[in-house]
């Protein structure tokens, strides 16, 4: 519990913005989008009204039996409003740095209605000196998430775990972080499989970070690195060997992407194929690696994503260059075969395909690759 106490005490005096993210679409009726705070990058809690509440909510973690019944398997005590405020701060940093994600959320919101649900949040980490999956997952595990399957990506020298959300006792019917809690997907670079030179660069900065790994979620909520800025030559050295490594060196624990749950939309955009067409018609480029639509072998998990935005980054040696930041993903989870005859209005999330797929995720990772960014620039 010591790490929770430290984290909470760090956050008690902070304030999260509740200002409105509003980006107008030139092609659709103008509506304001209110997901969560849109904050200044250096301090996402500035000018806020995040107040720590004394009320404590009981939250239940749910899993499924073979017949799909929901089973209570654990509980946690904590402030749900606090937890969602942290998610909102992570989201705010992400939206502030990634105009494409903000624009697409506004676009979908204008066309579909008030409710957009997130399928999952994804983070990248360095698998060295305690800075890997465990550094970020501890925050979610403490609040009732459950670790599920491991995924391996040998060619990229990565592994990942996904985490299922707790079943909350309070009723959240809003959009984004105020809707159903998202799954969490956390990957880590298997640093010991890189060249000695690349390992030295990564270990240099994770050593500088020291106890920063204990505050990965806090770093994500602030959009801050837990190590010092690297030099441009070190960034280039990692980029030549691992795009993932270079991305993580300059972005740290910030959200790599959020994912819209398309089947929870209300219009015909609930079909990911229609949504993909809609997004491209409005001038956004989708990740083409392995095809625009990534389909799992069982054909029940359909995914696509945009190409990452880029942002200017000033390196420690004074050089300023564009580096890839984040992107937005879309996922449609189809109904499992045993529930195919269930009336549409009775279908719930546990009736649908759960989990993740290595083949899909491997191609989604390419959203931040030089090949995809170059294609978009062209």
From TrEMBL:
Alphabetical list of InterPro entries matching this protein: HGLS
Enzyme class: oxidoreductase
EC number in record: 1.13.11.93
Family: Belongs to the 2-oxoadipate dioxygenase/decarboxylase family.
Keywords from the UniProt entry: Dioxygenase, Iron, Oxidoreductase
Cofactor(s) needed: Fe(2+)
The protein's name in its UniProt record: 2-oxoadipate dioxygenase/decarboxylase
SMART domains cross-referenced by the UniProt entry: DUF1338
One GO molecular-function entry: dioxygenase activity
């Amino acid at each position: 519990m010591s790490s929770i106490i430290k984290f909470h005490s760090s956050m008690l005096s902070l304030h999260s913005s509740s200002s409105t993210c509003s980006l107008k679409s030139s092609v659709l009726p103008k509506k304001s989008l209110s997901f969560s705070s849109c904050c200044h990058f250096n301090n996402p809690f500035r000018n806020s009204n995040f107040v720590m509440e004394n009320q404590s909510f009981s939250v239940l973690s749910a899993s499924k039996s073979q017949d799909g019944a929901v089973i209570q398997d654990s509980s946690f005590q904590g402030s749900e409003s606090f937890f969602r405020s942290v998610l909102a701060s992570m989201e705010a940093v992400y939206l502030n740095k990634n105009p494409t994600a903000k624009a697409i959320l506004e676009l979908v919101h204008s066309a579909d209605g008030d409710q957009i649900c997130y399928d999952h949040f994804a983070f990248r980490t360095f698998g060295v000196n305690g800075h890997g999956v465990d550094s970020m997952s501890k925050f979610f595990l403490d609040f009732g998430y459950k670790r599920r399957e491991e995924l391996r990506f040998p060619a990229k020298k990565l592994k990942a775990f996904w985490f299922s959300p707790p079943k909350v006792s309070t009723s959240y019917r809003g959009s984004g972080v105020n809707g159903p809690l998202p799954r969490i997907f956390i990957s880590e670079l298997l640093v010991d499989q890189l060249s000695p030179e690349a390992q030295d660069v990564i270990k240099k900065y994770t050593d500088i970070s020291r106890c920063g790994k204990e505050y990965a979620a806090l770093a994500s909520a602030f959009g801050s690195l837990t190590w010092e800025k690297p030099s441009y030559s070190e960034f280039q050295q990692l980029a030549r060997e691992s795009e993932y490594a270079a991305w993580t060196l300059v972005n740290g624990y910030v959200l790599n992407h959020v994912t819209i749950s398309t089947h929870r939309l209300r219009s015909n955009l609930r079909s990911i194929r229609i949504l993909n067409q809609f997004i491209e018609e409005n001038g956004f480029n989708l990740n083409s690696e392995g095809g625009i639509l990534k389909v799992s072998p069982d054909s029940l998990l359909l995914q696509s994503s945009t190409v990452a935005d880029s942002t200017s980054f000033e390196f420690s040696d004074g050089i300023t260059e564009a580096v890839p930041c984040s992107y937005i993903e879309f996922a449609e989870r189809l109904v499992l075969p045993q529930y195919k005859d269930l009336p549409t209005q009775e279908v719930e999330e546990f009736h649908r395909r759960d989990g993740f797929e290595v083949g899909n995720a491997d191609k989604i990772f390419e959203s931040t690759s030089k090949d995809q960014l170059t294609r978009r620039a062209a």
